[in-house]
Write a structure and sequence with these properties.
It is a single chain. The chain is mostly beta strands. It has a single domain (26-498), classed as Tachylectin-2, Chain A, CATH 2.115.10. The chain has helices at 30-38, 289-292, 304-309, and strands spanning 26-27, 71-80, 87-89, 92-101, 116-123, 138-142, 160-170, 177-189, 203-220, 225-237, 256-262, 270-277, 316-324, 332-342, 349-356, 359-366, 380-386, 394-395, 402-405, 415-416, 419-420, 431-436, 441-449, 452-457, 461-466, 469-472, 491-493. A hairpin with a 2-residue loop joins strand 23 and strand 24 (452-457). The structure holds beta-D-fructofuranose. Beta-D-fructofuranose (FRU) binds next to strand 2, strand 7, strand 11, strand 15 and strand 22.
Amino acid sequence: IPVESGFPQPTLHTGVAHDVYENYTSIWTRADAKQIKAISNPKVAVGQNSLPASLTMPAIPTDFPVTNDQVWIWDTWPLTDAAGNQYSYNGWEVIFCLTFSRNTGLGFDERHTHAKIGYFYRRAGVAASQRPANGGWIYGGLVFPEGASAAVFAGQDYTQNAQWSGSMRMFKANSNQISAFYTDMAFDVSDGLYNTPIPKGSNIKPPQAIITKADGQIHSDNTHVWFTGFDKHVPLLKPDGVYYQTGEQNQYFSFRDPYTFTDPAHPGQTFMVFAGNSSGVRGETPCDASDLGYRPGDKYAETVDEVNGSGAIFQRANIGLAVATKADLSEWKFLPPLISANCVNDQLERPQMSIQGGIYYLMTISHRTTFAAGMDGPDGEYAYVGQGIRSDFIPLNSGSGLLMANPTDLNTAAGADYDPNPEQNPNAFQSYSHYYMPNGLVTSFIDAIGTKRGGSFAPTIQIKLHGVWSELNTAYGTNGLGPYGDLPPNRFILDRQAA
Ligand code: FRU
């Protein structure tokens, strides 16, 4: 990938593993993330894609098929084991999505405070060419019984309970026992009427985010898939304000998206990565030279004072780590974050750890609009590689961290998904919430193409990982775009009880 001149050198990272319990956090530095702009072409015509084709998801057509006409869908995950393998159940593919009814009169951007985990299923073993263009997913309804996730906040004042992302784990090859790990949210938001003078939509108090577990059972017959259980929701983790920022420190804090995994190097232990923010009061916690990461004598280096004076201190994302302290995964303890992006970006969402033959890939998703002052990068997926769960992670692709971008003109202002800049590439917000699957397949949802909103599955793509660099597989699907909403299982469960 050609690198433009006029940019600093990326920080030197070794990729070397640290003890998973060590108080060491790798840093995605400003010097690293500046490489995104350094690999972006400054000369493309306005509204074209300035990013390398090998790191860009091809443009999704505007006439994409609608996944479901009752509900919008966004963040999606399959049924997985501790190594990220994906399972079909008795001949059914089953997936889980954040959903929100299309028919309430509220818009797609109001979905977050109403999100509920729903599920979809379809017959396994059918070639994509034999399925409808939208993937043919059948909406099964919500996964949890009414009120079960809200019970975690019993006795407290809040206006909405929402269920945010997570993962669905199975444990034994021939069992219908599964566990949901997700983010139980309670919002206390003004309706602008009874809570005046607090303006409509503002927080009366900061939201609560609790990483929560619920156990249930999956069932199927020849016609459909359904669930029982998921009635007892066990709160696992709330931010501690020491490693992970609390709502009191920052009402816009992130604390969500649990993804559990095991590591061949740590037999018998289960870990969880999640999206967090570095602790400290918002706007009052400066960055230091390690967050900037410039090499000595780099003539393009910024000073710590410049950065702290620029407003960049408002952005403090991290990727958190926790370890289960009970075998049934009902109790967990925080470990120091794996990576921080202080003064770089505010959100590293839906992290995943993919361990491939002793190489540890840490993946996450982020937005153009959550980059700190002086930084820029597209909406898409980001990745870091190291030799252990906790490593001095090397950001992929010229040290930038960019794994897969939407087609974006980084020379032109972004606008927002709900209000795109007409000069910007119409596909700059085409998809989000990428989820990395076996064989390098990546699913995501359509957010906005031009002014048309999505809430449907994006085409699946395939990324080839080569250690410190990666590329889109253009031989997959049509010029790199595969079937819409394809999350193919690579394992199956046959449960005698259901036969
Ligand atoms: C990503 C995300 C997740 C969160 C959910 C809320 O699209 O922001 O981090 O769990 O959406 O809707």
